[in-house]
Amino acid sequence: MSAVVVILFGSPGSGKGTQAKLLKRCLSGPHVSTGDMLRAHISLHDEIGAQSEGLIKSGKLVPDELVNRLVEERLARPDAKQHGAILDGYPRTQNQAAVLLELLKTGGYRAVVVHLVVDYERIVARLGGRRQCPVCGTLYSLTTNPPRVPGHCDREGAVLVTREDDRESVIRERLAEYDRQTVPVLNFFRDAAVPRIDVEAGDAAPEEIVERICGSLEQEGLIAPAKKSLVK
Questions:
Q1: Where do the domains of the chain lie?
Q2: Are strands 130-132 and 139-141 parallel, antiparallel or unpaired?
Q3: Between the chain's N and C termini, which has fewer beta carbons within 10 Å?
């Protein structure tokens, strides 16, 4: 059976990063995050890091060619060649998607798109209900993890604040940008006949959601039943 590469999509607040890690329960391939790879190069102060850091600090996107090269090199490593991979944050553009499909074809991988679907009003409520301690950085949720004393940090007693990126107007713009960026890429994969699994990700705990994903991958014949070993 050819190694499977899961291309994971999810809007801000959908829990995509959590699911990328939990999917290790039924997939043996590495979690490949382009953001993590770029940060690693920046911390190493190498050529890629220097180029990336300058662009990121100036608010510009890292060129497709550079990101494509990072992914190509990662997929060529033995663990990915043998077990596939879980792609998180890539591809972001149609050009990246086209390059990725060619890489997967050349490498003999099978591809599947996993799309985490969450109602945007639920995301606005979830992220808009977060508060942070300005002293220690602890995050609270007004609905699921509220402070013992309303409006104050349990540890420091400081007045909690709303982060700039958790303001409703900012959240809605991030979601709109996600749609503008992602819908064309999803349509590209659809037109290329790449299998796609849509998973409702807004109404359950992360462990239940990953069970849904793994179950769907099994039903599609992308993972063997014996490989499904979820631990609750």
A1: 4-226
A2: antiparallel
A3: C
Question: For residue range 44-87, what is the model confidence (pLDDT) as tens digits?
Answer: 888 888 888 877 777 677 889 999 999 999 999 999 999 999 99
The residues, ordered by sequence, that sit 6+ positions from 164 with a Cβ below 8 Å of its Cβ are 170
One DSSP character per residue, 39-90 reads HHHHHHT-HHHHHHHHHHHTTPPPPHHHHHHHHHHHHTSHHHHHH-EEEES-
Residue-by-residue DSSP string for 148-207: SSTTB-TTT-PBPB--GGGSHHHHHHHHHHHHHHHHHHHHHHHHTT--EEEEE-SSS-HH
Q: Is 10 helix (H, G, I), strand (E, B) or coil?
A: strand
Tokens describing residue 230: 């979820």
Whether pTM exceeds 0.90: no
Task: Tell me the pLDDT tens digit for each residue of 209-221.
Answer: 999 999 999 999 9
Q: How is domain 4-226 classified at the architecture level of CATH?
A: 3-Layer(aba) Sandwich (3.40)
